[in-house]
Structure formats: C-alpha cells, structure tokens
C-alpha cells in the first residue's frame, strides 16, 4: 500500500484497538490514524476513498465491540484537540465531533446554557452520542441538535439539519459519515440554578453507577414502556455468563467483560439474552452496540 508523504507519518499498522474500547477486548485495526487537524482528517478520508479502504471512526469507544479478527480498514480516532473544540455564540454551542460529552455538558452549564445537562455521566463523544442519539431521563441529544457538519466517505464536507439526521429512540441516520461538529440550540438559564440542577443529576446518575467495575458496555436499547434492565432481571438472567462475559448481577442492562473475555463471548451472550427475552416476554430487544 502506497501512502502519500503528507499522511504516511500518521498511519500505524495492525494497531490494537482493545485499549481504546470500554470493553477492553477485540482485534487490531489494519490501519489506524489519529489526525491532528481537520485538514489531515479530510485528507485521510479522501485518500482512503481513492484506495477503496473502508473507514471507521472511533469516538470514546463506549458503544463498540470489535471482533477478534479486527478491522480490515482504516480506523480514525477523533481524539486530537482541534477535532474536539467547543465554542458558544448566544444560546448556541458548537462542539467538535471528538469532544467528550462530559466537557460539552460542563462547558454549556458554565456558559449558563441549559438543554444538555441530562447527558451528564453518559460516556463518549459528541460523534458517538449523535450516531446513537444518546440520552437519559427521557431527553436525548437529537432534541437540541440544530446542525451537524459531516464529512462524507468520498471526502465532501456539508452541513445537515438536525431533522435530516432522522433522530429517533437511540437511533439516527448518521452512521456512515464522519461527524466533524454539531451545533446545539440551548436555552439561556440562571447559572446558579443550572449548576444545582447539574449537581443533582450527577448525584442521581452516580448512585446508579456500578462502582469499581470497568470493562463494561450497555448492550440493549430500552424498549417502549419498559427497561432492558427490568426485562432481563425478571426472567432471571441477571448475572448470567458466557465464557468470560457476564450480565451484571446488580445492573442487568450492563455487559461486563472479564480479563479472559473475548468478543465472541460477548456476542454469544447478547444473542442468548435477546433470544430468551423474546421467548419469555415477546419483546425483541434491539442492540445498542456497534459491532466492528
Ligand atoms: C457505563 C455506560 C453507560 C452508558 N449510559 C448511556 C446512557 O445513559 N444513555 C445512552 O444513550 N447511552 C449510554 N451508553 C452508551 C454510550 O455511552 C453512548 O452511545 C455514547 O454516546 C457513545 O459514544 P462514543 O464516543 O463512546 O462512541 P463509540 O463507541 O466510539 O462509537 C459508537 C459509534 O459511533 C460512531 N462514531 C463515533 N464518533 C463518530 C464521529 N465523530 N463521526 C461518525 N461516527 C462516529 C462509531 O463509528 C461507532 O459506530 C452508556 C455506555 C456505557 C458503557
């Protein structure tokens, strides 16, 4: 494979993805790059398109399972500073696709802008959150998204409206393009009461977190009128195992990968739980995770 001189220094080969994923497992990426500017990111995507190399974008890695066989393509990390910038203008906040959700929320609250605080404590980045229309407490990121700047797989930058992204419950039409940035339409609010509200949300969120457990993922989307956690607990599958993967006994909507877990263990366990829930309740749980 020939790399242009301007990009060769960015590309790493057979790069281990596991340390970048919340589950901590999975195979390597054939090619991996962490562009340090928007220009480099665009050049990489254009080059990959010319070479017919599939591109995948890595955000915080909190909603991903990579198979043991790895990714036969180019994985691009959005972690560099210039891809994570935040700015506000009036009641609008614009965030780079790689910006951490936690930074976006605290920045908005610090600027006295309400509308994103319910995302506090959700791991990941703006790009990942938009793809899955992340949310909590009945409010999702799509509801305040005004505009999204995307880079198509053939390297063209364009803006689409929040409506065009077709947000629905934990879904969007955004899978496939690179999310460069998003602009959120927020509401001016009193700083003191907004900060108190954020603190309360943080306490509630923390009280429902699993303490001392890492290597976790949230495998299922809550269906209408129920929670995956309750459905799984009710049919007695909390704590169930497959190889090194288990469903948390305390928070059955979380998948936990032990040191010995493989991605295959996780995928088999998710499928078994889904089948059992369908069989016993008639509800077909939808996957929350992207599988690479
Ligand atoms: C403990 C825990 C708690 C969670 N709680 C919640 C919750 O309360 N509510 C909720 O909705 N979700 C929750 N999640 C799921 C997850 O945190 C969200 O879906 C999160 O927004 C994913 O963001 P990420 O950056 O980690 O995405 P990643 O896992 O890195 O990627 C997920 C998908 O998004 C794509 N993607 C990422 N960045 C970009 C980009 N810039 N451009 C294009 N595509 C991109 C990836 O290619 C991949 O397809 C939870 C997960 C965990 C592990």
Topology of this structure?
Elements (H helix, E strand, L loop, with lengths): L4 H4 L2 E6 L11 E6 L4 H13 L4 E4 L5 E2 L5 E7 L8 E4 L2 E5 L4 H10 L2 E2 L11 H6 L3 E2 L2 E2 L4 E7 L5 E5 L16 E8 L1 E2 L2 H17 L8 E2 L10 H7 L6 E2 L2 E3 L7 E3 L5 H19 L8 E2 L1
Parallel strand pairs: 2-5, 3-5, 4-19
Antiparallel strand pairs: 1-2, 6-7, 7-13, 8-14, 9-10, 11-12, 11-13, 15-18, 16-17, 17-18
The chain binds flavin-adenine dinucleotide.
The site of flavin-adenine dinucleotide has 31 residues, from strand 3, helix 4, strand 9, strand 13 and strand 15.
Strand order of the largest sheet: 6-7-13-11-12
Number of strands: 19
Please state the structural category.
alpha+beta
Which shape, going by the Cα principal axes? globular
Oligomer state of the chains in this structure: single chain
Helix content: 25-40%
Bound chemical compounds? flavin-adenine dinucleotide
Question: What would CATH call the architecture of the largest domain?
Answer: 2-Layer Sandwich
What is the first-to-last residue Cα distance? 22 Å
Descriptors:
globular; Uridine Diphospho-n-acetylenolpyruvylglucosamine Reductase, domain 3; alpha+beta; 7 helices; 3 domains; Uridine Diphospho-n-acetylenolpyruvylglucosamine Reductase, domain 1; Uridine Diphospho-n-acetylenolpyruvylglucosamine Reductase, domain 2; binds flavin-adenine dinucleotide; five-stranded antiparallel beta sheet; four-stranded mixed beta sheet; single chain; 292 residues
